[in-house]
Amino acid sequence: MTTAPPAPPGLLGDTPERNYGRKLQLFNAFAEPELRALIDGLGLRSGQQALDAGCGVGSTTLWLAERVAPGGMALGIDLATAHTRIARAAGGAAVVLQADIARPPLRPGSFDLVWCVNTINHLREPLGAARTLAGLLRPGGRLALGQSHLLPEMVFAWDARLERVATEANRAYYRDKYGLREADTTAIRALVGLLRGAGLRQVRPQTVVVERVAPLAPADEAYLVEALFRGYWGDHLRPYLDPDDWAALAALCDPASATFCLRRPDFHYIQTFTLVTGTL
Ligand SMILES: C[S@@+](CC[C@H](N)C(=O)[O-])C[C@H]1O[C@@H](n2cnc3c(N)ncnc32)[C@H](O)[C@@H]1O
Q: Could you tell me the pTM of the whole model?
């Protein structure tokens, strides 16, 4: 008997063994007010069925479950063993399944809403995945595709150049890491095209601004320090930056430094989050 070879990693390196659950927890805690407001705006009703495709650690699956209770169901599916384990451990009313959203083991035509955030850009064939997700909708059901950062973020209000070189260095690092071209990572800007290509109508985009100033709430500070400064702008950027820029960036991002940016009175952070919905 032969076993099927494992599927190749996704465009951004996703496999069942991958675990970046902590980063996902930080992002969802940080952007919870804005994400919940977007979910509230979808007009879900009790008794409905919602799918969180690429649910990560399941924060949004729980928020969707609240909106369809009583009598409804929110199902989260994700490829990663560790992410689904964290999502199940969170408890609550959501159901969590480990599966590939490009080949979901689900009955077509069974969901009122498919929510898919910061995930379709991880797939090698996003249009095929969007079509597959659209196929899971009931007539009149909606597919909601969400992505952070379709517009550039503002981190250092006082130094646009340093922020730009750090962002570019991070992009170059990820392109090298996963063997990507720039077009591979920017194709996701075409969310509207994905929904239209999946045959959906009433395609409606909505971009919200996630904006924070000092003093920051603990969830905001944790996201910026752990996910952005240590995660995206950590030591791996050193070879991609001029030494003076690296030193300036490291000092601004280090909580132990006298110039730590989150203690500056002029700290002002902006990022965008875009949700595009389409109806079957
Ligand atoms: C950036 S995370 C976003 C997670 C979650 N939607 C959120 O907003 O926090 C992308 C997620 O997609 C999952 N993923 C990647 N490729 C997948 C696939 N083919 N099928 C199911 N999940 C996948 C990853 O394991 C990860 O949890």
A: 0.96
